[in-house]
Specification:
Number of helices: 7
Oligomer: single chain
Helix content: over 70%
Structural class: mainly alpha
Strand content: under 5%
Shape: globular
Low-confidence stretches: none
Distance between the termini: 42 Å
Radius of gyration: 19 Å
């Protein structure tokens, strides 16, 4: 039963997520919380781990959830299910791309999806920041200070360094700050 639930759940995630892994986070969140597979806090930790490990975030999250629920078999089933729709869509796109992409209606749909995807990603990021800073219903000072510090570094680096901070450097910096703040 769990294998079927993992397969169908992550097949839906893979089929109805547009805009990449970050756009999938709300759908995965709803799936795992409604099935009781992970707690809200564990999911937040999983998102952080999935962002910092190699590979697509959606695949990493599916693999983790599948593994936590049904071991290696669950991980394989959830991962296969989440990538299956993309695999078939890419095959279809390769066949019809040359004619369909020039269609003005297809172009209109793609232009209309961009703001939607941006909104979903911003809403997810805002939710995660809010959830992190107000973890127990009250303002968590340490988490808020770290969040503000990282935001200042991220957005202020271009003014000081005259270039954007590398995502890899930012992830490593965030990990070091986390170790300092919570590891000692």
């Amino acid at each position: 039963m769990i294998f079927w639930e993992l397969f169908i759940g992550f097949l839906k995630v893979g089929a109805f997520t547009f805009g990449g892994g970050y756009a999938a986070i709300p759908i995965i969140r709803e799936l795992v919380l409604s099935n009781g597979w992970l707690s809200e806090e564990t999911l937040a930790h999983m998102i952080a781990v999935s962002e910092s490990t190699p590979g697509p975030i959606m695949v990493n999250m599916a693999t983790y959830v599948g593994s936590s629920q049904a071991g290696l078999s669950g991980a394989l089933i959830a991962t296969t299910a989440v990538v299956l729709p993309s695999f078939f869509i890419i095959l279809l796109v390769m066949v019809v791309l040359k004619t369909v992409i020039k269609n003005r209606y297809v172009q209109a749909v793609l232009r209309g999806l961009k703001p939607c995807v941006i909104g979903i990603i911003l809403a997810t990021g805002g939710f995660m920041v809010f959830r992190n800073c107000f973890r127990t219903g009250q303002l968590n000072a340490a988490d808020t200070i770290i969040t503000v510090l990282l935001a200042l570094i991220l957005f202020g680096a271009k003014g000081i360094l005259k270039k954007k901070i590398s995502p890899i450097a930012f992830i490593l910096l965030s990990a070091c700050i986390g170790i300092i703040a919570y590891g000692f």
